[in-house]
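Ligand-bound model needed. nicotinamide-adenine-dinucleotide.
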Amino acid sequence: MNFKITLLPGDGIGPEVVGEAVRVLETIAGKYKHSFDFQERLMGGCSIDKYGSSLTDETLADCVASDSVLLGAVGGPKWDDPNAKDRPERGLLALRKGLGVFANLRPVKVHPALVDGSPLKPEKLQGVDILVLRELTGGLYFGFPKGRDVKDGRERAVDTLEYYDYEIKRIMKLAFELAKGRKKKVTSVDKANVLESSRLWRQIATQVGKENPDVELEHVLVDTASMRLITGPAWMDVVVTENMFGDILTDEASVLAGSMGMLPSASLGESTVGLYEPIHGSAPDIAGKGIANPIGTILSTAMMLRHSLKLEAEAASIEKAVDAVITAGARTADIGGKLSTRQMADEIIKHIGE
Ligand code: NAD
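Prediction:
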């Protein structure tokens, strides 16, 4: 089969890890007789430098017209001025909006051979296999009114936490669908004891739960969820939550795996064009050294094959290859080894299709 994939390597280590992920996809194409047509575009700081815009209309149109999009990372000290006209993160928000993606999926698994790299005690990490779904389009980051003013002689700042029923319903449905292919359990995280938006969230979660009686649903307050992620992460399977809670909980969950460099993500919407990216940033401290861990990006391509291109066997073969090399002791610096970005990818490529 023939697929068009837009690559947005971005800034810092982005191009290094995306380059290796492309080699893995080319290996998949060869072994499974597919053809991937890659088109590379600028996004983030590099796009500001060249075009004066973090995401041009042309690049967005190319992304929308492709089968899926693979992103490295954007940002870095060069573009950090808070008063700048455009910033790399704006491109990311515009890209998510333009692609219509509303759910960010972050699987967090702890490889048994890497438990020592995690700050948690090994016994707490037994069987950890969580899929967090974070809502991407609503909540505090987008609600109006928003801004600063002076009221009654006092400086004031306002953000608005707003959710529509349809925004909650569509991500809840996705969470239940995904739970059916896993342990048939959904944990919906909210703050329904205090927030009106969370009471609507809980109401809709309950409705969707009734439509899916084969999946167990539990409601957990966000403060309890954040504690349980550390005290007993193995009890969680599919976790679904609103934008800001998800932002915080997904970073907390990523710590379990020992290194940011290990974890992939997928952002999905109604269309099959998904956005796939590692969870880490552009890591300016190690950019250009060739030592970044490419596994988060390589596993993101597995998510792309599964969710956008519907190539399950190919996705599983990448995941098995990563599993095998970690078991065999292959390590980049962030997980206690000496392999370069390229060498780690070489090891993974050797195991593909075994
Ligand atoms: P970061 O994720 O870039 O780095 C945090 C730490 O993890 C650093 O020590 C880094 O060296 C290490 N690290 C990250 N990825 C790694 C990998 N693949 N292999 C080995 N080590 C890795 O976060 P930060 O330092 O807070 O942010 C740096 C820049 O990235 C900022 O400009 C930030 O805005 C941006 N950022 C972008 C995204 C994105 O593009 N989605 C996400 C987060 C941060």
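The chain is about 40% helix and 25% strand.
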